[in-house]
């Protein structure tokens, strides 16, 4: 154990305290150096199993390393010039084959029991379909026609850029904060249907001990029953490309009545409004990574967003400038990750938009491709007509492109 | 340096330094660079492929020629012979494992992934929400019906004929082996040419079958999991038959040049083993790919 | 007849010794030359892979993105792993097999010398192809060394180079493995029965079987990737009836035996070194052999423990959990036997012994975390976190890599006829041991607290763990320069030490390699030696 003990102390000395302080930022019930005990029956069982195996290993380690250290000290040539010459004993071999075997059974039994519980998704109270996208999550409350995307919060997004110059320790919940959390009720058995739209992702929230891969073309089922209201954070756990580290998960568990209230608020036209507002807001900051988000940039998008929420696309068509200005922010939030802020993309996977045939060509075709997606490009139908018109106009008139304006009406026509 | 005095029979033949392996590597690498360039449609063009292939083939030829010379020159003792036998066995085993990967894929698709897509076991929701109405059947090109409707090749048609052809070729090569062991070179060579002919005939039918599949049956590599497994398995097998036939021809020519002795002829046996391996794989193919 | 020829041709060959200049190395069929080439190649790859790991660690030093774009970070992670595994550890072990197997079983060379040369020379080209992708547009592969589709299919121009590089490595490993198997089965000196073979030979024999069995499967898997990307097949696409998870099954059917391919020869090395310096027979030789065999067998039925979160049926999850846990038993037997070998021995602690003991301590820690990972319900929490990264670096770096270093220290006097600097050897060990723990121990905590793998940036509360880890990584890397200098010193006699070492460099050592002069002549054992009880590393006769 020497190494282990020695290191544990070193770790404690240098890091633990600080880590423990910073810890609540992510998993409240972990002390910053261990698994969280979590807020579900399952998560606590898993934690107990974890500690049980850990101590088993510690004990075995103490015995094995103890024996080694003993003989290193006392069976060195200076102390024991004449080596013994025993070299075989079937009995001993049998003993130390059997004992570990028994120990393993003592671990396997409770493990199997817990596993069987985890896999039992029967009679759930509600179901939520979770779809992974490069690089955001989509939540669909089945039977409630409430559904929305959840992306990395604008502030983190701005701070995480290379050499952003932002002090990330000052950013609240850096990299584990989203624009729209997944809201769920406490005390209900919630079934998650997990799948993916492109590559494999994995939906993981440590404090409810749920981690399941999101496999394109297949659906994995898993469940949880959260006991205490609160905010629980997680991340995408399966490598899914360049922004794998930037698609966090936030689960907000509310008491039943508050959840109901939230749900009704989501229903009807409001959802749309929400989305575009959300989409617009983050951008503002993203647009000014130096964090000096000027009012101008903040307001503009939201106005327009509100404008189109008044669901009359044909209404007073926004000017080219308005479109361009808003388009830039929508672009930064949704497109820049792949096509890059300067439009040059990352060929061959993410084509350049500068002088691109699609962008210079027929507007209808481009609108369709943005709405429906193509190859690696996910569909962006969830954005409002105004946002899409703005961003398409922006691409058609930036970086030396000059291919005319697209109005929300044109987009609506293609839907 | 070991004492030059006593030469016990187990003294091992250590070949002189050789540049063939290095050159062969250069050839192969030229080929893969060429192919990569082609796949990613880079400008380099096809010449590295041809150049590399030509080089590789030449080297392989020279290499084996050298081995043949050493062997005919009697440099190989009993131990070298054993070495080659073991080596050939393990090489064939590695080939078996290569095919195992593709058989495994077929097994997985038929017994697991397709039923799941069809909503079996814990995957009911997969079927209902993602692939509504899809029923797992075999053959299948998947819920998206990739490559469009297609028909399959009935087992008890050309494939059956091909099976018989290969089985017969297994018989003829065994006859050739016996003839060789009884030092009856004429019949041996005759049986060998018969085997070569059967191999070629098999390949001819296989090619016909592919053309038929692509032109009439709309069965292509793109026909979902069925097309994928069908063409990859039969294709790699066909490739091995081609190699085998070439080896048979070489061996036959060597026989005509008077190579091999009734008591020692591993070159011959190695190829025979390989041929039997190709034969067995085909039986497997016939049963799980065409028949079941 | 045959015999007479054999003799002149032979006499001709060995007396004209090695050629001169570069052509010697290109054309050589000599197991010692090729062993040397393998080791230098592995050495180079270890350092390239090491540099990549430093890029990774530097970016992870503190939160926030300081040096590289996420895409490039992923390329580093992927290439680091491929280079270390296929370019570092495996060739290093093959190099050791080249040097030692013929000398240990008392034969003149490997069974197929020309194939041996081919197997080596494929490697520099394969890695040339692989590393060249770093300079292509779209960059190097960034989908992780596990190459999961559909992500890996997003790779740019690098894709076919990745696939073909893997194919070439496969050819190299398979030819190398066949060569080792055949040599061991066919060319042992008279008197060397299977149960008298040195354990390094035994473990390599079993490793070679594993290689021959699984490398072709990897080749098949990546071939399917290739056709899925370029020829419209749909092995790994649900729309066509395939399944992305199918790739994972095929890959890990290769991948898990692969990890034992990287540890079994290490077991052999440790089982050779500990008895030497404990001046005692290896305890339980036979059980060591059986344990190795059962580990190899089990390694074929545990692969899905890498995929517990993909949503397998419950039965599958249970089976693979139990099967995986079982591996602790034979591995335990090995650990216990090593301890029993030390017990009441008369130990001295030269550098090889230090690294061997470091191996036993630290590999076991890695084994423990492995066992924890095997527990499916808990693995749901551990999976794809730094806890896994900590686990496998414990078994790979202070495991496999330490054993390689130990082996080099142990045998280099026999290879070069010069003794390394014991003092600097000890310094090298202590620095390595301290820094490697500083690098990887904190990663357990980061992982448990929730830090996922394969990310260039992380939430701030993981900072302390990563600071430690990065400091450790740089320290460990720097410490390796002591090793280089110490070893190259032996090769080129820099420190001017003109020693004439005895044949038996370590007085406690047994085995045929210690009966030939140091440095070992270019050709050893052209006339097979008779194995005496004194040199037998197997269980002493009286025990039977
Ligand atoms: C040299 C390489 C090596 C070795 C030897 C091992 C050994 C083991 N590994 Fe590890 N493993 C890897 C390399 C290795 N592993 C790699 C590279 C990965 C990650 C791949 C990737 O995703 O990139 C991995 C990942 C990995 C996982 C997947 C984790 C995840 O992704 O979620 C699992 C899960 O079961 C696992 C288990 C084990 C077990 C049970 C052993 C056992 O063999 C350990 C047995 C040893 C002991 C247990 C200690 C000694 C025993 C005793 C002292 C006896 C008494 C002990 C008990 C009874 C407990 N390993
Ligand atoms: C044998 C394999 C091996 C080795 C040696 C190492 C060595 C190191 N690894 Fe590696 N690593 C992997 C295999 C290995 N790794 C794998 C499989 C992954 C997973 C990749 C993936 O997620 O896809 C990984 C991933 C990985 C990560 C996670 C990246 C991520 O998830 O984003 C990190 C982060 O710290 C890391 C760090 C290190 C460090 C600091 C070392 C240091 O130890 C490096 C310093 C080592 C040296 C400088 C070499 C010294 C060796 C010698 C001197 C021997 C001499 C040789 C002869 C005599 C022939 N590695
Ligand atoms: Cu999505 Cu990682
Ligand atoms: Cu494994």
From TrEMBL, chain B:
Pfam families: COX3
Enzyme class name: translocase
Membrane topology term: Multi-pass membrane protein
Domain of life: Bacteria
Subcellular location as annotated: Cell membrane; Membrane
Major localisation: membrane
Family note: Belongs to the cytochrome c oxidase subunit 3 family.
Protein name: cytochrome-c oxidase
Domain Heme-copper oxidase subunit III family profile: from-to ranges: 8-292
Lineage: Bacteria, Pseudomonadati, Pseudomonadota, Gammaproteobacteria, Nevskiales
Transmembrane segments annotated in the record for this chain: 20-39, 45-64, 84-109, 158-176, 188-205, 225-251, 272-291
InterPro entries referenced in this protein's UniProt entry, alphabetically: Cyt_c/ubiquinol_Oxase_su3, Cyt_c_oxase_su3_dom, Cyt_c_oxidase-like_su3, Cyt_c_oxidase_su3-like_sf, Cyt_c_oxidase_su3_a-hlx
Annotated organism of origin: Sinimarinibacterium thermocellulolyticum
EC number: 7.1.1.9
Alphabetic keyword roster: Membrane, Translocase, Transmembrane, Transmembrane helix
TrEMBL record, chain C:
EC number: 7.1.1.9
Domain Cytochrome oxidase subunit I profile: 19-532
Matches recorded under Pfam families: COX1 (PF00115)
Membrane topology: Multi-pass membrane protein
Keyword Cell membrane: yes
Reactions listed under catalytic activity: 4 Fe(II)-[cytochrome c] + O2 + 8 H(+)(in) = 4 Fe(III)-[cytochrome c] + 2 H2O + 4 H(+)(out)
UniProt keyword terms in alphabetical order: Cell membrane, Copper, Electron transport, Heme, Iron, Membrane, Metal-binding, Respiratory chain, Translocase, Transmembrane, Transmembrane helix, Transport
UniProt cross-references to CDD domains, sorted A to Z: Cyt_c_Oxidase_I (cd01663)
PANTHER family registered for this protein in UniProt: CYTOCHROME C OXIDASE SUBUNIT 1
Similarity comment text for this entry: Belongs to the heme-copper respiratory oxidase family.
NCBIfam families listed in its UniProt record: CtaD_CoxA
The protein's role, per its UniProt record: Cytochrome c oxidase is the component of the respiratory chain that catalyzes the reduction of oxygen to water. Subunits 1-3 form the functional core of the enzyme complex. CO I is the catalytic subunit of the enzyme. Electrons originating in cytochrome c are transferred via the copper A center of subunit 2 and heme A of subunit 1 to the bimetallic center formed by heme A3 and copper B.
UniProt name for this protein: Cytochrome c oxidase subunit 1
Origin organism lineage: Bacteria, Pseudomonadati, Pseudomonadota, Gammaproteobacteria, Nevskiales
């Amino acid at each position: 154990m020497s190494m282990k003990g020695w290191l544990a102390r070193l770790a404690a000395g240098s890091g633990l305290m600080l880590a423990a302080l910073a810890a609540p930022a992510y998993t409240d019930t972990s002390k910053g150096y261990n698994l969280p005990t979590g807020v579900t029956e399952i998560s606590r069982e898993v934690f107990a199993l974890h500690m049980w195996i850990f101590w088993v290993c510690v004990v075995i380690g103490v015995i094995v390393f103890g024996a080694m250290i003993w003989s290193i000290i006392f069976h060195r040539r200076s102390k024991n010039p004449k080596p013994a010459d025993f070299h075989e004993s079937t009995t001993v071999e049998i003993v130390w084959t059997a004992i570990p075997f028994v120990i393993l059974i003592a671990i396997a039994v409770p493990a199997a029991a817990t596993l069987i519980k985890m896999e039992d998704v029967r009679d759930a109270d509600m179901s939520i379909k979770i779809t992974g996208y490069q690089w955001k999550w989509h939540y669909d409350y089945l039977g409630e026609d409430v559904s929305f995307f959840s992306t990395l919060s604008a502030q983190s997004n701005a701070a995480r850029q290379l050499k952003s110059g932002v002090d990330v320790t000052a950013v609240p919940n850096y990299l584990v904060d989203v624009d729209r959390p997944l809201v769920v009720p406490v005390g209900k058995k919630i079934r998650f249907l997990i799948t993916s739209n492109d590559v494999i992702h994995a939906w993981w929230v440590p404090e409810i001990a749920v981690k399941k891969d999101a496999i394109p073309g297949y659906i994995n089922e898993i469940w949880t029953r959260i006991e205490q209201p609160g905010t629980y954070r997680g991340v995408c756990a399966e490598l899914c490309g360049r922004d794998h580290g930037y698609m966090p998960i936030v689960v907000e568990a509310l008491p039943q009545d508050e959840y109901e209230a939230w749900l009704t608020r989501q229903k009807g036209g409001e959802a749309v409004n929400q989305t575009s507002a959300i989409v617009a807001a983050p951008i503002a900051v993203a647009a000014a990574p130096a964090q000096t988000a000027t009012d101008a940039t903040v307001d503009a998008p939201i106005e327009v967003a509100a404008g189109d929420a008044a669901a009359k696309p044909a209404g007073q068509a926004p000017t080219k400038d308005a479109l361009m200005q808003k388009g830039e922010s929508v672009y930064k939030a949704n497109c820049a990750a792949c096509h890059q802020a300067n439009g040059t993309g990352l060929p061959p996977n993410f084509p350049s938009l500068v002088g691109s045939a699609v962008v210079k060509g027929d507007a209808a075709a481009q609108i369709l491709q943005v709405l429906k997606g193509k190859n690696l490009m996910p569909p962006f139908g969830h954005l409002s007509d105004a946002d899409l018109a703005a961003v398409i106009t922006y691409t058609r008139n930036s970086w030396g492109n000059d291919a005319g304006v697209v109005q929300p009406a044109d987009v609506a026509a293609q839907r | 340096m070991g004492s030059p005095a006593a030469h016990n029979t187990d003294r091992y033949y250590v070949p002189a330094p050789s540049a063939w392996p290095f050159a062969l590597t250069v050839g192969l690498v030229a080929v893969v660079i060429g192919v990569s360039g082609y796949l990613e449609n880079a400008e380099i063009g096809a010449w590295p492929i041809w150049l590399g292939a030509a080089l590789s083939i030449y080297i392989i030829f020279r290499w084996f020629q050298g081995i043949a010379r050493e062997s005919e020159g009697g440099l190989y003792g009993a131990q070298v012979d054993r070495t080659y036998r073991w080596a050939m066995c393990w090489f064939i085993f590695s080939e078996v494992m290569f095919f195992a990967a593709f058989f495994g894929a077929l097994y997985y698709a038929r017994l697991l992934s397709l039923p799941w897509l069809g909503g079996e076991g814990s995957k009911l929701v997969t079927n209902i929400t993602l692939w509504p109405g899809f029923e797992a059947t075999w053959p299948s090109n998947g819920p998206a019906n990739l490559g469009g409707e297609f028909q399959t090749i009935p087992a008890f048609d050309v494939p059956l004929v091909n099976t018989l052809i290969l089985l017969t070729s297994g018989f003829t090569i065994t006859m050739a082996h016996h003839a060789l062991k009884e030092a009856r070179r004429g019949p041996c060579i005759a049986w060998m040419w018969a085997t070569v002919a059967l191999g070629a005939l098999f390949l001819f039918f296989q090619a016909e079958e592919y053309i038929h599949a692509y032109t009439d049956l709309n069965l292509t590599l793109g026909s979902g999991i069925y097309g994928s497994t069908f063409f990859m398995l039969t294709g790699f097998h066909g490739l091995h038959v081609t190699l085998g036939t070439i080896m048979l021809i070489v061996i036959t020519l060597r026989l005509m040049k008077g190579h091999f002795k009734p008591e020692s002829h591993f070159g011959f046996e190695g190829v025979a083993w390989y041929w039997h391996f190709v034969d067995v794989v085909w039986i497997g193919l016939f049963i799980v790919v065409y028949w079941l | 007849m045959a015999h007479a020829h054999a003799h002149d041709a032979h006499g001709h060959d060995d007396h004209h010794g090695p050629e001169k200049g570069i052509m010697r190395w290109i054309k050589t069929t000599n197991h010692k030359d090729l062993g040397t080439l393998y080791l230098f190649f592995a050495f180079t790859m270890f350092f390239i892979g090491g540099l990549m790991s430093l890029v990774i660690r530097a970016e992870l030093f503190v939160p926030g993105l300081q040096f590289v774009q996420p895409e490039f970070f992923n390329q580093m992670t992927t290439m680091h792993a491929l280079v270390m595994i296929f370019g570092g550890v495996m060739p290093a072990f093959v190099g050791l097999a080249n040097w030692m197997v013929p000398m240990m079983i008392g034969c003149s060379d490997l069974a197929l010398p020309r194939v041996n040369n081919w197997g080596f020379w494929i490697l520099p080209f394969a890695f040339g192809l692989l590393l060249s992708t770093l300079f292509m547009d779209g960059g190097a592969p960034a989908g992780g060394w596990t190459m999961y589709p559909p992500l890996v299919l997003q790779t740019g121009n690098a894709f076919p180079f990745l696939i073909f590089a893997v194919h070439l490595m496969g050819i190299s490993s398979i030819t190398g493995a066949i060569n080792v198997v055949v040599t061991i089965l066919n060319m042992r000196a008279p008197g060397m029965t299977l149960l008298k073979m040195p354990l390094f030979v035994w473990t390599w024999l079993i490793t070679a079987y594993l290689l021959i069995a699984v490398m072709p499967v990897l080749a098949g898997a990546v071939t399917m990737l290739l056709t899925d990307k370029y020829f419209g097949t749909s092995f790994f696409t649900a729309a066509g009836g395939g399944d992305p998870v199918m790739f994972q099954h095929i890959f890990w059917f290769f991948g898990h035996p692969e990890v034992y391919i990287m540890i079994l020869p290490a077991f052999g090395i440790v089982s050779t070194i500990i008895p030497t310096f404990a001046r005692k027979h290896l305890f339980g030789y036979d059980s060591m052999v059986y344990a190795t065999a059962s580990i190899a067998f089990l390694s074929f039925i545990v692969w899905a423990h890498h995929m517990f979160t993909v949503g397998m049926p419950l039965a599958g999850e249970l089976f693979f959990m139990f099967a995986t846990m079982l591996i602790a038993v034979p591995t335990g037997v090995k650990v216990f036997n090593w301890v029993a070998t030390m017990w009441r021995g008369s130990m001295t602690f030269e550098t090889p012994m230090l690294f061997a003991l470091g191996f036993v301590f630290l590999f076991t820690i890695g084994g423990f975390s492995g066992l924890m990972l095997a527990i499916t319900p808990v693995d749901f929490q551990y999976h794809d976190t730094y806890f896994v990264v900590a686990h496998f670096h414990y078994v790979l770096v202070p495991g496999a890599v330490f054993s390689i270093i130990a082996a080099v220290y142990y045998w280099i006097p026999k290879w070069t006829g010069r003794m390394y600097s014991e003092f600097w050897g000890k310094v090298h060990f202590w620095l390595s041991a301290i820094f490697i723990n500083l690098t990887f121990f904190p990663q357990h905590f980061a992982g448990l607290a929730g830090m996922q793998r394969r990310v260039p940036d992380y939430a701030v509360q993981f900072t302390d763990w990563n600071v430690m880890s990065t400091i450790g990584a740089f320290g460990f890397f720097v410490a390796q320069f002591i090793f280089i200098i110490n070893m190259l010193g032996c090769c080129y006699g820099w420190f001017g030490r003109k020693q004439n070492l005895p044949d038996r460099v370590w007085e406690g050592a047994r085995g045929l390699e210690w009966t030939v002069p140091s440095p070992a002549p270019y050709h050893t054992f052209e006339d097979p030696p008779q194995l005496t009880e004194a040199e037998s590393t197997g269980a002493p006769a009286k025990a039977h």
